[in-house]
Amino acid sequence: MRFLTLLGLFITLSLGAAQPVLAQIKVLTSFTVFADMARNVAGEHAEVVSITREGAEIHMFRPTPGDIKRGLGADVALWNGMGLETWFERYLENLGNVKAYTLSDGVEPILITEDAYQGRANPHGWMSPGNANIYIDNIVTALSETDPANADAYAANGEAYKAEIAATFAPIRAAIEALPEDRRWLVTSEAAFSYLARDFGLKEASIWAINADSQGSPQQVRRIIDLINENNIPVIFSESTVSPKPAEQVARETGIAYGGVLYVDSLSTPDGPVPTYLDLLKVTSQTIVTGLTAQP
Ligand SMILES: [Zn+2]
Known about the structure:
With 296 residues, the chain is α/β, with parallel strands linked by helices. The chain has helices at 2-17, 32-42, 65-71, 88-93, 129-146, 151-177, 194-200, 218-231, 245-254, 277-293, and strands at 25-29, 46-50, 76-79, 99-102, 185-190, 203-208, 235-239, 257-262. It folds into 2 domains: 25-169, Nitrogenase molybdenum iron protein domain (Rossmann fold); 171-293, Rossmann fold (3-Layer(aba) Sandwich). It is built from 10 helices and 8 strands. The protein starts with a helix and ends with a helix. The chain binds zinc ion (ZN).
């Protein structure tokens, strides 16, 4: 009885102390990376929900009824496009008339050169400090058109965010440019880093082209082993959302270093290594620099 009284008092006090409720828009994103970017642009003016959760495989996701429920009431949806989220348009049909913005619009595509996806655009456009501005500008446009009353705030937040990203990457780029040219290779499990490799002046190779394809077949492993041997490549990396086993096998069979995990398709939980997009770019770039500069 006393507990209930105290509980009632607590609720009354909590409600009494509550801030006036902000008129927020609800922004839905296909994965966690865009949710963090959208929060940086939106500030206090939006509630942002990612359909896929931290650590999820995002290419071929199967939404549950619960995932659909979380999207209900969205004012705007943000996705990558370029063939990345094969499930997204079907998912959106469940929500009725939500306008979707394709955040990769304006990215100059780099084509996939291997396997079944040869000739298609590599969809991982956000994985690039150079492309970050395009994504951020598209988010600013999406939120401003959805909520014109706060357009000035979205534009200001977007500019501050772009400046922060540019400042973070100048020293990392300089460290890579200081490496001998024949060491500047980025070899990974999935070919998810074409844009990052271009930004940093790295040659790129991978065991497989895209996670929707077979991962680490004997032919794929053979091909990358030959490439590593021919070019004296010092290190191979893997990604957080796939098994590291094929990359570790390649490292064992060639005698080169396994450089650890790169993050691209998903953020970690808040207590993990990459809770934000800026962390995702920073930790991944620093892991690459560490792997390439370590002496064998
Ligand atoms: Zn991917």
